[in-house]
Design goal:
three-stranded antiparallel sheet; single chain; 44% helix
């Protein structure tokens, strides 16, 4: 791994230096503002500092760099650099103990997950046996539960549905498959949170987005902005604060030009507030944040501080529909520090088992906002009406069940 530190007048200029040296595969480890006439910045103007890294071996004069916060005598060997050697910038706090604690906690969590999986498999087998024992009692129960599994619905939800149908059957005997299906449909839709999409009104709305890198967050923001700009072009502004992914600013700037929406960059709460003051008359401001993964709790908390300081009214958690259920739930759990959350699912057109989306929505109990079902810049974004999606998902099996009455 090669690690270098860059100092420039502003963030775009620093990112360009990183791109020139490391290319588009670089990873931003840290960014910070340098006050003028300080020990870190002897010039008379504000500067920014970026610490970047790349896994590839690159040609350079010596290839050795020192991370801010390390002892000046400590040089990094590409073969020995590890997370346990990193020292927090600015504060100079050794995090090796924290890393060990995190690693131990992760190990314990994985063991707990393994135990839960074993219990889940037991419950799954137990549920299947229960389904078989009740086949002669509840018409169509086998087909219904199997269909839920094929579509990716979790066993916990299937078990709850089965218990509901059993209780309903005990109250009044279900005589036909269609009755079973109708009861299941009503129950399932009752578990889905409501739809809460964006609406432009007289009061300005500042909307934040968060999600892991590659989840399609930037494209989804451009789609939403484009759909509103068709009616009120001057009322929509996109602000990018993504200082982690090389090329992210170029991507969003290109997208904003395609949809003809104003685009600005800001990399901390003060810069964002400046942009908000500049576009005081804008009715809808969409903030694109850096991509944070499930293991970046610090990043989530930093973003929480920024969104709180600029009075973000809603935070849309962007989830890649191609990810598994556990990954979605991990992201949702980490985002629990943000108020007024909405779920936005991307790449829905790339999955054949949309049950994972339904499972994450039901288990999180968070309202949904949009789904992105196209890679095109314009269009391909629509309100995430999960109840309607449920009907579409089981439309074929509805006919099959009804024909077997």
């Amino acid at each position: 791994m090669k690690i270098r530190k860059y100092i420039a007048r502003n963030m775009p200029e620093a990112l360009q230096q990183v791109r020139d040296d490391f290319g588009d595969d670089a990873v931003i480890l840290n960014t910070r503002q340098l006050r003028r006439n300080s020990r870190f910045n002897t010039s008379d103007q504000h500067q920014v500092e970026i610490t970047a890294a790349i896994d590839k071996i690159i040609s350079s004069e010596d290839g050795e760099s020192i991370i801010s916060g390390f002892s000046p005598d400590l040089k990094l060997d590409p073969d020995t650099v590890s997370t346990e050697n990193i020292v927090l910038t600015e504060k100079g706090i050794d995090i090796s103990d924290s890393f060990v604690e995190w690693r131990n906690n992760t190990k314990a969590e994985m063991e707990d997950i393994s135990e839960k999986r074993l219990q889940g498999n037991y419950r799954k087998n137990e549920l299947k046996n229960s389904e078989q024992n009740n086949t002669h009692k509840i018409p169509g129960i086998d087909q219904l539960c199997d269909n839920f599994r094929k579509n990716g619905i979790t066993e916990e939800i299937i078990e709850n549905l089965f218990c509901f149908l059993s209780n309903e059957h005990n109250k009044s005997i279900i005589k036909q498959n269609a009755e079973t299906y109708a009861l299941a449909e009503n129950w399932f839709k009752s578990q889905l949170p409501e739809l809460r999409r964006l609406r432009i009104d007289e009061k300005r709305q500042v909307i934040g987005f968060l999600g892991s890198a590659g989840a399609g967050k930037t494209t989804a923001i451009a789609k939403i902005a484009g759909s509103f700009a068709k009616k009120r072009k001057d009322g929509v502004v996109i602000i990018s604060s993504d200082n982690r992914r090389i090329g992210a600013l170029d991507q969003l700037q290109s997208l904003s030009q395609i949809i003809d929406v104003r685009f600005e960059t800001a990399f901390d709460d003060m810069e964002i507030q400046v942009m908000l003051d500049r576009y005081e008359q804008a009715q809808l401001v969409l903030i694109d944040a850096p991509g944070y993964g499930c293991g970046d709790e610090v990043g989530f908390r930093q973003l929480k501080g920024i969104y709180s300081s600029v009075d973000v009214q809603e935070v849309h958690v962007v989830l890649d529909a191609t990810n598994d259920f556990q990954h979605m739930m991990d992201m949702i759990e980490l985002s629990s520090i943000f108020p007024n959350r909405r779920l936005l699912f991307t790449k829905v057109d790339q999955v054949s088992r949309v049950g994972t989306i339904f499972s994450a929505t039901i288990c999180s109990e968070i309202p949904t906002s949009y789904i992105s079902n196209s890679s095109e810049v314009t269009g391909g974004i629509e309100p995430a009406d999960m109840r309607e999606m449920y009907t579409d998902m089981l439309d074929f099996d509805r006919k099959r069940v009804f024909n077997n009455v």
